[in-house]
Amino acid sequence: MLRKPSELLEIGSVLRDQVPVIKRFTGGGTVVVDKGTVFVTLICNKDDVPGVQPYPRSIMSWSGLLYNQVFKGIADFQLRENDYVFGNRKFGGNAQSITKNRWIHHTSFLWDYAEGNMAFLKQPARAPEYRMERGHTEFICRMNEYLPRTDFIEKTTEAVETYFSVKNVNLEATEEPCGAEFVPSTRLLSKQELEEALGPQPEIIGVSV
To answer: This protein's superkingdom (predicted)?
Structure first.
């Protein structure tokens, strides 16, 4: 979330329902996250993938080839304007962070979602052309309508193995300190920040008759 929260969210509803809002360091579009969201993050050194340069378009194009392997023969999978879609309905949004020697490609997959939660999002001022001003529920789709979750995980692992050596690790192993100080830049927005984004509200004056 690089733009102002008031441009992206229905702040009043977010505050009323006490929805946590996280500003992630990779930026990208605003995503409703719950137990139905599947995340896939690729963290690579600049020379890890032959032919891929540390630039957004190069990384995105390669990711399209990677997921072509995953979704081969499933619906009409395409990479369209930085989104993963079946036909003209989005099911995966991407964000990136690129430094001199390393890059991250992060995807939020809509495995499932509650339609009511989409009401927390405003219609974005900037949207891909293929969206054609459709509302959120007409623009997105659920992955679970196209393949089982276990198949997605298996096919993604197989696709990644065509480029890298893959091994399973416990989550606890990734949390061990590596000796370097980690300063997180992804953070939870405070209630005060959201209230300031909402701005002053009109005063309600009671009238008795």
So the answer is: Eukaryota
DSSP letter string over 44-95? EETTSSTT--SSHHHHHHHHHHHHHHHTTTSTTEEEETTEEEETTEEEEEEE
**In CATH, what number is assigned to the domain containing residue 30?**
3.30.930.10
Q: Tell me the pLDDT tens digit for each residue of 178-188.
A: 666 666 788 99
Phi, psi of 123 (to 5 degrees): -65, 120
Q: Contact, 145 vs 175, CB < 8 A?
A: no
Domain count, the chain: 1
Place of tokens 């927390």: 120
Q: pTM of the full predicted structure?
A: 0.86
DSSP state of 187: E
